Records
---
Amino acid sequence: MSQASALRSDAGGPGRKPPGRVSPLSQYVLKLTSRCDLACDHCYVYQHPDQSWRHQPHVMAASTLEQAARRIAEHAATHGLDTVRVVLHGGEPLLAGAGGLAAAAAELRRRIDPVARLDLRMQSNGVLLTPRICDALVAYDVKVGISLDGDLAANDLHRRYASGQSSHAAVLRGLGLLRRPEYRSSYAGILCTIDLANDPVAVYEALLAQEPPQIDFLLPHANWERPPARPEGVPTPYADWLLAIHRRWLADGRPVPIRLLESLLSTASGGATRTEAVGLGFADLVVIETDGTFEQVDSLKSAYDGAPATGLDIFRHRVDDAAAHPMIAIRQTGLAGLCATCRECEVVRQCGGGLFAHRYRPDTGFDNPSAYCADLKELIHAMTPADVPAQRQPTDALSPTVLDDLGTGYGTMESARHLASVHLGLVRALLVDLSPRAAHDERAAAGWQLLVDLDRIAPEAVRAVLEHPFVRRWAQRCRDDATADLAYLACVAAAAAIRAGADAELTVPARDGALSLPTLGAMAVDADEEAVLLSVHDGGFTARAGGRRITVRPGRPDVPDGWRPVRAAVSDGHHVLLEDTDPYRDCFGAPVAARLPAATADGWTRQLTRALRRVDVEAGGYAPGLRTLLRAVVPLRADEGGMQRSAAAGAAFGAVAVAPVADDAALAVLLVHEVQHLKMHAVLDVCDLFDRHDRRRLVVPWRADPRPVEGVLHGTYAHLAVADVWRRRPGGAAAATFRRYRDWTDGALDALLDLGALTAAGERFAHRMRDTLDSWS
Ligand code: SF4
Ligand code: SF4
């Protein structure tokens, strides 16, 4: 089993609470059966690496179905979902027979219809369709998609019985039934898997002849380990194949919706995708296997044995638990969940990195472009009208409501929490991507397994550590640099174990004479010490290094020699760490202070506490963002020229860095200013407010050098808040400072809006800032 699969199979457990906000799931694939009457040689259920079907019961038991329906209804009610889609699946669901299908549909409708609209569907090979079954489908309003790969020759390439006999005639018989007026309402469409050996137009015509309400073309499942079959010297054969159909389809006047092509056209003009194969729509889907286990999407069966497993099931776990599963959560982070290449790609809004399963590579997991990257790019370029700019669509990663709220410059607690959950999702996604590499490093592997176990029994402790700003920075560094310290994962896990009060033994790395435990502090060790054996127990730990043995209980007043606890400022329950130990805090483009002496640190924490209170009182509109997002302040070295210095960095989301400040009022302004940068970083992590390919620069009043659009957006957003703080302060000097910042913001907003580099979402965001500014006059 790969390391990644170990995380997934272990990530659940009785009573597990979802770690943080859960994005609800509204689509379910329900495996009524696990066997099939056909033996298609391209079938991902039986012919691909995952062989879990062998351990499944042939048919879902009535009690399992009831529990599944209960779970789905419970989840819909909890999250107030309007619509839930359930797809009856297999194997071949028709093997359940007319009675089994009717019973399943009745039970699902009985439980779910009172809570949410149930969109009930079935995916079938169609060969067992009978009038009796069709009657049941119509009675329970079940829409059926039928798999067919084209005409007789095309279909027979793969879709045969185990005897080798053709299934084509039987499928056509089934389709004939669905075309009958009395059954037509249950005909959802045809699903066709592409084979380059088949003539695309002949396939299109054969499918069209079945008068389907919709056609869906699927790329055959492949990944970087098992790449798509390509004729030699043809760089983009799948794009060519689909483009031949696209041309004919346009010439025919688009007689039937083709889901893949329509989704690409829709996303080109800022619309939504209708398939998880392309686009950045969230993957809000989970599979319920015949035995009641939750699995990830079926297409992952093509990656490796055990790939779709979650370790969760409908009897012990709620759907919320499945939604919080790292590999399901990662697929709900939109743009942020993609690899660096895809995030930078000019067609990412349309492509979305392709189907998740097609990104798999054994060494890097799913942190790759699609194995069909070249084809997808070519297809999109060839299909997209030249006058549609590919990157200017608003994103769906942040709802318009949240974006509008943040655009005012302020932001409610709810919006700030949304940004925090985006950050947490990103960190989790980074860790999942690192997991295959962690398997090859003993300390990292042990840390990974401990983290997975803790996520099951103490998710809040794991969350507290993963939200620490510098964990993200460390993880990003590991992602971008193969020589970075992956073994630090053991330190991350140890910190979570200590916070959870768990027992664990692990070896953690030491670097430059210190062993660091994120959120807790650091311990001095000999400079040549590279590893320390840690026994975690009773909310503390005992470290054995260089013949010494030290026991530390973080939070207790008795601080043993060599332990440097992180100190914190506290204001009305809001803890902000004074971070002067974390080895990854050096990311602000300015020299950070070394470990502060106790008296100096005491002065810092007291001043921080006063400044936090001051924000509450005089700049309350910014307090929710600050209270929710600010987790650490990093002391910078004092500027020799006496300049006031502060900074925030997207890579260390949740931290701001500040050089010593003369008074509380100035510190309050700096905190508000830098937290605005954090908010903007978080928004830009998942939402394109501007065209990233636009290299133009703008002259701004607060800098001598022209700034890129991103810099101007950041500056404008921060200065809007600073102006607001000064606006509320008494005195002529404050009024003058207010006017200066207001005018800077005003001019920069005009310049941004005039430049034409903002996306639709960016323009909307800028107009919200303008509304706030205008409201002051
Ligand atoms: S009909 Fe579907 S489930 Fe059955 S073997 Fe063919 S592809 Fe697999
Ligand atoms: S075309 Fe390739 S690089 Fe671009 S988003 Fe798609 S898979 Fe990623």
Note: The longest helix spans residues 413-438.
---
Amino acid sequence: MARVFITGSSDGLGRMAAQLLVEQGHSVVVHARNQQRGQETLAAVPGAETVVTGDLASIRQTHNVAEQVNAAGSFDAIIHNAAIGYQEPRRIATEDGLPHVLAVNTLAPYILTALIRRPKRLMYLSSGLHQSGDASLNELLWEKRRWQGQQAYADTKLHDVLLAFAVARRWKDVFSNALEPGWVATKMGGPRAPDDLDQGHRTQVWLAVSEDPAAKVTGQYFYHMKLRAPNPASRDVERQERLLEACRDLSGVDLPSR
Ligand SMILES: NC(=O)c1ccc[n+]([C@@H]2O[C@H](COP(=O)([O-])OP(=O)(O)OC[C@H]3O[C@@H](n4cnc5c(N)ncnc54)[C@H](OP(=O)(O)O)[C@@H]3O)[C@@H](O)[C@H]2O)c1
């Protein structure tokens, strides 16, 4: 039996992954943005061990999420799943002055990775759209670019792959991988999404708990439990380090180098 923490498990693929892990007999700590969503999440995932709460758009609350997770003990696996989709019509600024999509999709998994006691396995939810992410990393804050919601989302999903691979390279004692779930009909994916929803949560669950040697790898990118080629820019070590540096500058949190 493994112990797994999943961000953004109040809905969609995070909730489905939590439900499947509980069904398989694992111990799962779920996460929701606030107390009310937390209660709803516990009701939707009967058998979950407990819930931690906090809005990942806020750096302060994200620190607090990490504290709650550390207070709950050690984890075998953490699934960085929570995200905002590609339909924000304008640059929405968080309380820290950051684009909302960047705060939730890029900075929160970075901060949580750095501050939560290191698990054995880390999974980062990316998207096929990461292939068109801006690999220059030049304008993370969208202060000069004209806002494009889909591009902003694609950029952050490339960041998630860069983060997964940077962690895999720095932390040799951890399996750190990224994956895309397919375009599926969750709140984010929308009702017309063409891919199989029932496959959308399985790869991250498999990577989290399976003893299959194919799941016990690091620095890889998956789709439906098979390796898939990520954007080649995600393999560029200098670019990985630049993303970590930008996240450190924005959050004030350092990611241990090994
Ligand atoms: N669905 C797709 O087609 C698709 C395709 C490619 C990649 N993905 C990736 O798969 C992952 C899961 O997506 P999904 O489709 O399951 O999305 P979803 O149905 O919209 O669920 C997102 C989850 O994240 C939570 N969340 C969002 N912002 C948060 C915040 N500021 N603080 C705390 N929690 C927050 C949501 O909480 P609430 O319920 O309270 O909103 C919800 O539990 C994401 O990383 C996404 O990028 C999805």
Note: The chain has a mean pLDDT of 98.
